[in-house]
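Reply to thread "Modeling small-molecule complexes from scratch"

Following up on the discussion above, here's a worked example others can learn from. I took a protein sequence and the SMILES for zinc ion and predicted the complex. Inputs first:
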Amino acid sequence: MSLTNQHSVSKMICSVLGHRYKVQKHITQHIKEYKCECCGKEVAVNTNGNIVPLTDELKQIHKSVETLVQRRTSNKQKNLRMPA
Ligand SMILES: [Zn+2]
């Protein structure tokens, strides 16, 4: 069986049993990226709690959000260390 066939079998299993999503990336408390362990399908849960397909565009947005959050977190830590 070729890899392509295996992949389509996995897809078939997923369409019957449902995907087995595992958190791949934790962007914020509400935004996460998931990948199916079975067929490799990538999705994301947006701020509304909806599951949306993980497109390249969305990945780019997530990367920007992640950078913003990291910057804000490090600023917060800096502020905490400074006496008010
Ligand atoms: Zn799947």
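What I'd highlight from this example: The chain has one domain: 3-76. The longest strand covers residues 21-26. Questions welcome below.
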